[in-house]
Model the fold of this input.
Amino acid sequence: MNEKVLKVTTISSLDQAHDLFKSHFEIPPKVMESAGRIISDVIKDGEKAALDYCNKFDNTSFKNIEDAILTSQEIEEGYKFIKDNKPELVKAIDKSYDNILRFHEEQLKHEASTWYFEPEPGKKLGQITSPVERVCVYVPGGLYAYPSSVLMTVIPAQVAGVKEIAVCTPSRGEGKINDILLYIFRYLNISEIYKISGAQAVALMAYGGRHVKKVSKIVGPGNIYVTAAKKLVFGKVGIDSLAGPSEVVIIADRNADPVFAAADLLSQAEHDPDAKSILITDSSELAENTIINIFKQIDRLKTEHGERFNRDLVLKSINDNCKIILCRDIKMACAISDIIAPEHLEIMTDNPFKTLELVKNGGSIFIGNHTPVAVGDYIGGTNHVIPTSGTAVFSSPLGVYDFFKKSAVTYYDYNALEKEHTLIEDFAFTENLLAHRNSVKLRIREKQ
Done:
């Protein structure tokens, strides 16, 4: 494959953009059926079914739930290994933790708390805000470990005041968990960890078992079976979102650096063959130079990293899902981006904050030439659990607000009810809810 495979697409109208980007991620019916069977089995047989599926899919040999619970000794051993042998990684985790904590503590200051007001004498209305008591954080794993996902999901829950945080994560075979995850669990003081993966983990957390307490909410990214299971258990528990393939849109003008643009498109392409990497620009020169640099960097990454760099996966993603869009101006580029409503949005223009004012939809937005998505993935502080597949038009990144629930509070004394009882009764009578009407009338009669 060479740069001739990737072409510049010119968009001259928003109708054309709607046609080009109308498809959205859908979970295949077979995956939904498979996840549904797993959930049904876990509802019926609890921990036994969950462990049977782990033994089948994860090469484990769990005989009981105790085998699937991470021990404090395992955690301490992994913690000590990383602390003694990976000083640079420890330093990176420290900085990441500090930044993520500071961002979410600041976020908490701007969240609505418990409040009341008295609109009229005898009335008191308000809202109670309280944290969800028990949540599950799902952490993807297996061949590679993702410690950043633990930080991004656990920290906002802790800042919100969640009392109980359970973690489910796949083992690498024979029940082993990557040392870096063990380090993070100890670092964050998380002790309830299950070596249970996939749809069976979601089902067990949603419905509980003889020895596993159900949760109220499940958060965190996972594979397509995890996403399918989260969709199916929603309503029994809360969820954060339904994660689809990763995506980035870059809005760039003629002064942007094509080397940077290419690098950031590739950083999304390496996630998944279905990952979407999109450049929108008003400069044909930037568009063409970005394409050239994409393939130069693929070759360089392969030379530098050998088998660690999955060239075939990246090429498939670029070939199938990368788009280089040319439009008339940056205002139109922003309008096209809003149609896509991307998970990640980068703005590389002369005045990026001015460009930001033209944007309505974007899960997480990265401003300027020196803020690649990787900053937010690891160190910046903003959350990297972000709405995908166009859902940024109505949803938000994971935050402290995801771990709160709100209750409305209403108080009327007799005089307040007496003043408005006929209005309430008229509404109830119109809707033929006569017992509703009666519940008000008898209170007024009783007093008279």
Notes: The radius of gyration is 26 Å.
